[in-house]
Design a protein that fits this description.
Number of helices: 14
Strand order of the largest sheet: 4-10-9-8-7-5-6
Radius of gyration: 21 Å
Bound molecules: pyridoxal-5'-phosphate
CATH architecture of the largest domain: 3-Layer(aba) Sandwich
Number of strands: 15
Order of helices and strands: HEEEHHHEHEHHEEHEHEEHHHEEHEEEH
Strand content: 15-25%
Helix content: 25-40%
Number of domains: 2
């Protein structure tokens, strides 16, 4: 066993009984190079983080330049840090005008927490509404929103009250009443099994929040910045939330999250008490510099259009796998899910595909669904490689290999 593997096994807290355990040597483009001498096509991109693939030269250059200027100073809003201010301005420019003010965090879950706190302060209410199948992160508040009781139950009393409603069911939205501070929703559920709601549902949600005075929070942690074939997934429905939460691709491969909203809402962060929501590292200059460089590439190359085009081609190919074991295919842009008849087969398929050099994974809240989220820059020849591996994996499963 290599030194790193031994340390991993003995000293790192494990998050599952069976980690994939690839020992990473380096990563370049859509490929991860492992200590076993093999390379693996990264068809999951750190679950949507590496939108430009690994080691994009513009991101590397921005990190080097920022490292030369300065690293951490004091982040939480006291100093003018150019990388942070410029990224906020660029995000505000790209989002609808009603989402023009940005607060940076370290992660998606932390941004969800900030958005929940902002909604409580603004409304003076305590209740939250989330949806079956939802995933918003693993801190206590975000976990309370998780649309899967099995993940919540072991942790006892979580912040709330939280009411979970069925996803994509407009009739159920009557439960959003004057006790609700915020409704949190993913415009496409990824961990919930790649579920794409109807436009009518999203519009009904907006209408119900307007009527009840609840703050509508879109979790675009995974869907944001091109993944679904639009720069933001909210563009599919045209519904603008009161707060949007971003992370994953936002830092260009470095840790960064954010939530954004209108001035009046975001002003709640500065009063009663002042400094009532702060962070030591959120919006770190290095992460913001990397994120800005990545965002400029996404915008200059209109990578959401590429995601749309390559996504169509990917789904056309994946459709050929649907049959006995795989019962449904869902997808939007470069987010795709294969639904298996049996969870055990889905898990074996993931392992067999990784063994053939392509990294995919299953979803937390829908264990029969295998999910793909390759870099937005993935080449069509690389899609061919992934399809060949998945096809072969399926054939192998049928043979019992
Ligand atoms: C939709 C969504 N929201 C929130 C999160 C939590 O983000 P983080 O892991 O950065 O806390 C995730 C992470 O997978 C996510 O997919």
């Amino acid at each position: 066993m290599s030194g790193a593997r031994e340390d991993f096994t003995r000293h790192l807290a494990q998050t599952s009984a069976a980690p994939i355990g690839l020992e990473i040597v380096r990563a370049e483009g859509a490929w991860i190079y492992a200590a076993d001498g093999r390379r693996y096509l990264d068809f999951i991109a750190g679950i949507g983080v590496s939108a430009l693939g690994h080691g994009h030269p513009a991101v590397r250059a921005a990190i080097a330049e920022q490292a030369r200027r300065h690293l951490h100073v004091m982040v939480y809003g006291e100093y003018v840090i150019a990388a942070q201010a410029r990224l906020a301005a660029r995000i505000a420019e790209l989002l609808p005008p009603a989402l023009g003010r940005v607060y940076f965090t370290n992660s998606g879950a932390e941004a969800i927490e900030g958005a929940l706190k902002t909604a409580r302060k603004h409304t003076g209410r305590e209740g939250f509404v989330a949806f079956d199948g939802a995933y918003h992160g693993d801190t206590m508040g975000a976990l309370a929103l998780m649309g899967n009781a099995a993940f919540r139950a072991p942790f006892g009393t979580l912040p709330g009250p939280v009411r979970h409603l069925p996803y994509d069911d407009a009739a159920a939205l009557t439960a959003i009443d004057h006790s609700v501070a915020a409704v949190v929703v993913e415009p496409v559920q990824a961990e919930g099994g790649v579920r794409i709601p109807s436009r009518e549902f999203m519009m009904a949600l907006r209408e119900r929040c307007d009527r009840s005075g609840a703050i509508l929070i879109f979790d675009e942690v995974l869907t944001g910045l091109g993944r679904t074939g639009r720069l933001f997934a909210m563009e599919h429905s045209g519904v603008v939330p009161d707060l949007v939460v971003l992370a994953k691709a936002l830092g260009g491969g470095l840790p960064l999250g954010a939530f954004a909203g209108r001035d009046e809402l975001m002003a709640k962060l500065a009063h009663d008490p002042p400094l009532g929501h702060i962070t030591t590292f959120g919006g770190h200059p290095l992460s913001c510099a990397a994120g800005l460089a990545a965002l400029e590439v996404i915008v200059a190359e209109r990578l959401w259009e590429r995601a749309e085009r390559v996504g169509v081609a990917l789904r056309a190919r994946l459709a050929g796998l649907v049959g006995t074991e795989i019962v449904a295919l869902r997808g939007i842009g470069l987010l795709a899910g294969l639904e298996f008849a049996q969870a055990a087969t889905a898990h074996r398929f993931v392992a067999a595909t990784i063994a053939r050099g392509v990294i995919i994974n299953w979803t937390l809240n829908a264990d029969r669904v295998v999910r793909m989220a390759p870099p937005l820059t993935i080449a069509e020849t690389e899609v061919d490689f992934a399809l060949a591996a998945m096809t072969d994996a399926l054939v192998g499963l049928r043979r019992g290999a």
